[in-house]
């Protein structure tokens, strides 16, 4: 049993909640502080006029990671929420047709063969490789703090690395196998979560295709926030103290040792700190310069995942033709990617995504009405104003109307917009990023910002800007790894 330490966790996103629960289980006295008035970070939820909106993540992938978290505390996910697999998993609108992506693999293979005869064989072999990467990744890579390359210098791991396709791009692997542009786009879609162009994303990440197609797209009834509630309940049962509207203003360090945190509510003493708020903000704003591991130049050179424009809309009627998840791929993917990554600008004709959770869950909208969550990925740091936000709302509503054949503009009862600047204001997000750092080769594993500050003995980091990376499952893992590292080092 580790010696009991007073630990402060900064931030109540998935990483902070996970870390706090594990630290308390390890025997520490844990206080989690959150600057906002509600818990959950990017996964907060709000309700207006009976419409319930998850503010951030909506795709529940890799259910085993959630299950593992609850199991480690003697619980099951089903103790906190009812999970159901979506079928179809999602709908895609192309310019001239729509595809429903079936949960059943045999049905999906038929779809592939119909579009491109023989392509189901390619799909099978592509997913066989993806499965290997996923299983090896989960088993050998992601549950490591990745503090140095030496963690990976093991014959078995080096052998595995070779098969993980780190050095070829996912785009080239997909192009080798599929000719049809729509199939290619479908296979590249999961990479959008990773925040870089498919051409710059290692083929390693086809593991996400495996997660998408074979492990499935799930939904916790009531919304993703049910997971947050479950994790908070676990933390409370372990003895974590949760404090909202408490903002870290600076980290007190004496001779390389954290002594505690200055907050808007006064000084809080600590034997150790896990910073699960935006890494860049903690480094550059909460630490004095001599304790920062990374320079401003380092941060400016990081490749960030996109920001996004989000719209939470309550409709005064039901909108036919949308599934729980609907992707609008009825525009030029390549051009939009250029506007996000290469020549940052507002997109001329963006791809976008709509989540209509009320399509499968009547509890999240008033009877006879629907909630819509609209998302356009954008470059980080763009200059924004109200007219731009209104423009994109019109663009998306027009395209939804075109594809579903129903009027929408006059049916909006609730509309809240959330933009890059809101990411900065609400989460202290670096340049307004939505999903942290892009998962390029040079920002993977030990090449990401380090989970442990080298200059301070007892300051650890968790969350989407450190290992293993962005996304809900990785953040849950990040919190666990940081907690165990702290416990191990602070014995
Ligand atoms: C719109 C959107 C859609 C997404 N969709 C998906 C999806 O479908 N599936 C998926 O798996 N992932 C998705 N993601 C990614 C995923 O949501 C994130 O990677 C993950 O939630 C990040 O968790 P985190 O704990 O690292 O950070 P956060 O959730 O940002 O938590 C950090 C917390 O720290 C707090 N904080 C900051 N500064 C301070 C301070 N000084 N003092 C106290 N508290 C502070 C912030 O308020 C925040 O609550 C999405 C993200 C976004 C934004």
CATH architecture of the largest domain: 3-Layer(bba) Sandwich
Bound ions, cofactors and other small molecules, one mention each: flavin-adenine dinucleotide
Helix content: 25-40%
Query: Briefly, what CATH class of the largest domain?
Result: Alpha Beta
Unreliable stretches covering 5 or more consecutive residues: none
How many strand segments? 19
Strand order of the largest sheet: 7-6-15-16-17-14-18
**Which structural class should the secondary elements be placed in?**
alpha/beta
Radius of gyration: 22 Å
Number of alpha- plus pi-helical segments = 15
What can you see in these coordinates?
Strand 6 and strand 7 form a beta hairpin. The chain folds into 3 domains: 6-82 and 222-302 and 438-489, FAD/NAD(P)-binding domain (3-Layer(bba) Sandwich); 104-215, Guanine Nucleotide Dissociation Inhibitor, domain 1; 304-427, Guanine Nucleotide Dissociation Inhibitor, domain 2 (2-Layer Sandwich). It is built from 15 helices and 19 strands. The strands form 5 sheets. It has a 7-stranded mixed sheet. The chain has a 5-stranded parallel sheet with strand order 9-2-1-13-19, with helices on one face. It has a 3-stranded antiparallel sheet with strand order 10-11-12. It is 35% helix and 19% strand. It has helices spanning 14-25, 63-71, 105-115, 119-141, 155-163, 170-177, 181-188, 207-215, 225-238, 279-286, 296-301, 333-342, 386-404, 420-427, 472-489; strands at 6-10, 29-33, 45-48, 51-54, 83-85, 90-93, 98-101, 218-220, 241-243, 248-254, 257-263, 266-269, 272-275, 307-315, 325-328, 352-355, 370-378, 412-418, 459-461. It is globular. It is α/β, with parallel strands linked by helices and 491 residues long. Bound molecules: flavin-adenine dinucleotide (FAD). Residues 10-16, 33-36, 41-43, 56-59, 247-248, 276-278, 281, 308, 310, 375, 427-428, 434-436, 463-464, 470-472, 475 line the site of flavin-adenine dinucleotide. Flavin-adenine dinucleotide is lined by residues 10-16, 33-36, 41-43, 56-59, 247-248, 276-278, 281, 308, 310, 375, 427-428, 434-436, 463-464, 470-472, 475.
